[in-house]
């Protein structure tokens, strides 16, 4: 039968307050293993409303604002501010721990508000949902039954994950920041940059005239060049040339390693691939070998956990620069001509896969042709998951990617999904209309309806508005709970709890690490992508550092790690080989 469960948040009074606090403490303990230094539950400030599934770029900001005003797309802050209390599956959901902590059956409201025990309280903690069926139009019900959707729910086992996750290589306790960075950008890649830069400089001067001030770049100079660029991510200066200035962003401690004129010469001729081959048609041919090498480094150094998220990382302009720069400087800025998606481990934040799509891409698959259309995002998802088949991964997706045809195709490859649906942004092909239309009857927070088709569940859950989820990774008869600071616990299906937990972690990751992206903004698209990729590599290197024994020797913050890497690249620190 169609599942429906009603329940409000905790009210006032000393007892509910104490219970809510105990729930928060229990939830915090579930997050300790994730090593999040920020306050996950936002009690020291406002709840994090940064949602990587909605507003992730300047292009999408306007559409995100419009969707937040649409009745079918409630504001994302209602969900992202729900502090989710679930660890990455397959461990037991937090709802079971809450039931054990209360030493009695957990209750929910059904029907006219009568409080009854949740099913499963006496059967090992696995609560089954048995709710009264809601009547619906006969023609809709018949059509949906013909489409395979049923109100009868059945328990489905979670996908078993037998792979080991985490770093694949044990780094020595004496490992430096440079050691971790070179897991992804080794010396052979840097040497290739040296060769290609010198080749380009020679060809350029043959065509446009000799440059008497140019001398061939060396490996040591290339490392210093990268160090100067990376310094903009730590000191947040818009122009890397500020290092040699006498202004606020000047940095005499590193400016003496290389003169400004020499740096500008290397910047002028810098290349990863100097010339296009006759067979090359891809717009990113100038950095594609580097992206391939970087991807190989990600795959070799780390195995992600079962739960992962597909989204666009926060790579917008530095808000400090936007607030301080002149109107003329803003007009000179060029809009990004590419879109960048990632597949990210939701238990560590490690980015396992990068996918770049160019807006000027020709043909029917160009970004301008497919922008905000399901086929583009479906293509993005397939590209990001091309190496994930057969591993029983659980992939969390936003509204633009979530669709029944894509999830069914992934299921054939043993990739399981849990995604947020939007009637405006998602491909709703094959989904029952009765679950997509809003009810005329006011709904109670925590109330939900579920329909199934095979192992696929479509959930409509209410929390200051309807939220719809499509999943084949979680059983529809298992219940979870969302924890909010003021409202206490809100009942929900386990899929909603898991989605909110992983979304919360990724939001915290973006809040913490996106400010360490390299601030240098070149006009050329391939250079923009290159520096974004370098920034992601450094963030990944820091994650591996925090998971290694070296972190227990010297506990560097992300900013301190970046400073150490800059000094080592500039040759200001001893980086003797440690492995």
Q: Could you explain how this protein is built, in words?
A:
The termini are far apart. The strands form 4 sheets. This protein has a 9-stranded mixed beta sheet, sandwiched between helices. A 3-stranded antiparallel beta sheet has the order 2-15-16. Strands 3-4 form a two-stranded antiparallel sheet. The protein has 21 helices and 16 strands. The longest helix is centred in the middle third of the chain and has 22 residues, at 187-208. The chain is α+β, with helices and mostly antiparallel strands. It has helices at residues 14-31, 58-69, 77-80, 94-102, 138-146, 177-181, 187-208, 219-235, 252-255, 260-269, 288-301, 319-324, 327-332, 367-370, 374-384, 404-412, 433-436, 494-513, 525-546, 550-553, 558-569; strands spanning 3-4, 83-84, 107-110, 114-117, 166-167, 302-303, 307-311, 338-345, 351-358, 394-397, 416-421, 448-453, 456-462, 466-471, 479-484, 488-493.
State the gist of this model.
The chain is of the alpha+beta class and 579 residues long. The chain has helices at residues 14-31, 58-69, 77-80, 94-102, 138-146, 177-181, 187-208, 219-235, 252-255, 260-269, 288-301, 319-324, 327-332, 367-370, 374-384, 404-412, 433-436, 494-513, 525-546, 550-553, 558-569; strands at 3-4, 83-84, 107-110, 114-117, 166-167, 302-303, 307-311, 338-345, 351-358, 394-397, 416-421, 448-453, 456-462, 466-471, 479-484, 488-493. The strands form four sheets. Strands 1-12-13-14-11-10-7-8-9 form a nine-stranded mixed sheet, with helices on both faces.
């Amino acid at each position: 039968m169609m599942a429906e469960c009603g329940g409000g948040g905790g009210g006032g009074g000393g007892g509910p307050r104490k219970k809510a606090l105990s729930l928060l403490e229990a939830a915090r303990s579930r997050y300790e293993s994730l090593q999040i230094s920020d306050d996950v539950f936002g009690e020291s400030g406002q709840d994090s409303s940064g949602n990587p599934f909605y507003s992730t770029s300047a292009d999408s900001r306007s559409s995100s604002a419009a969707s937040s005003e649409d009745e079918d797309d409630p504001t994302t802050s209602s969900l992202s501010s729900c502090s989710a209390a679930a660890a990455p599956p397959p461990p037991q959901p937090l709802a079971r721990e809450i039931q054990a902590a209360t030493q009695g059956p957990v209750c929910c409201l059904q029907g006219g508000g009568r409080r009854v025990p949740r099913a499963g309280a006496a059967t090992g903690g696995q609560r089954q949902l048995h709710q009264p069926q809601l009547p619906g139009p006969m023609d809709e019900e018949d059509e949906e039954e013909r489409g395979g959707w049923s109100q009868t729910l059945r328990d489905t086992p979670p996908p078993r994950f037998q792979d080991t996750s985490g770093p694949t290589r044990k780094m020595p306790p004496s490992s430096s920041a440079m050691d971790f960075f070179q897991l992804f950008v080794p010396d052979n890649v840097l040497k290739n940059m040296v060769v290609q830069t010198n080749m380009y400089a020679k060809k350029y001067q043959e065509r446009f005239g000799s440059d008497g001030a140019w001398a061939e770049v060396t490996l040591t100079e290339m490392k210093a060049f990268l160090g100067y660029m990376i310094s903009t991510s730590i000191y947040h200066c818009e122009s890397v040339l500020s290092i040699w200035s006498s202004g606020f962003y000047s940095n005499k401690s590193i400016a003496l390693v290389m003169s400004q004129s020499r740096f500008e010469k290397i910047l002028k001729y810098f290349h990863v691939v100097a010339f296009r081959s006759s067979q090359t048609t891809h717009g990113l041919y100038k950095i594609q070998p580097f992206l391939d090498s970087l991807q190989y480094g990600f795959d070799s150094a780390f195995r992600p956990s079962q739960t992962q998220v597909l989204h666009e990382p926060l790579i917008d302009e530095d808000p400090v620069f936007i607030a301080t720069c002149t109107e003329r400087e803003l007009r000179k800025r060029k809009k990004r001509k590419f879109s960048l998606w990632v597949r990210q481990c939701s238990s560590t934040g490690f980015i396992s896969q990068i996918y770049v799509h160019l807006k000027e891409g020709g043909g029917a698959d160009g970004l301008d042709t497919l922008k905000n259309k399901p086929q583009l995002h479906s293509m993005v998802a397939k590209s990001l998951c091309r190496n994930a088949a057969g591993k029983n991964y659980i992939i969390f997706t936003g509204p633009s990617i979530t669709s029944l045809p894509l999830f069914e195709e992934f299921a054939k490859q043993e990739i399981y999904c849990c995604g947020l649906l939007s009637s405006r942004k998602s491909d709703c092909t094959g989904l029952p209309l009765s679950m997509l239309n809003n009810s005329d009857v006011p709904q109670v927070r925590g109330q939900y309806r579920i329909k199934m088709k095979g192992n696929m569940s479509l959930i409509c859950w209410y929390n200051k508005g309807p939220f719809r989820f499509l999943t084949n990774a979680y059983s529809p008869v298992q219940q979870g709970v969302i924890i909010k600071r003021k409202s206490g616990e809100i009942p929900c299906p386990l899929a909603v709890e898991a989605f909110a937990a992983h979304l919360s972690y990724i939001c915290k990751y973006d809040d913490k690490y996106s400010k360490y992206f390299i601030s240098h903004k070149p006009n050329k698209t391939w250079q923009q992508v290159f520096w974004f990729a370098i920034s992601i590599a450094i963030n990944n290197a820091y994650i591996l550092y925090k998971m290694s024994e070296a972190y227990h020797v010297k506990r560097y913050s992300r900013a301190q790690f970046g400073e150490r890497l800059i000094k080592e690249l500039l040759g200001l620190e001893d980086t003797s080989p440690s492995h």
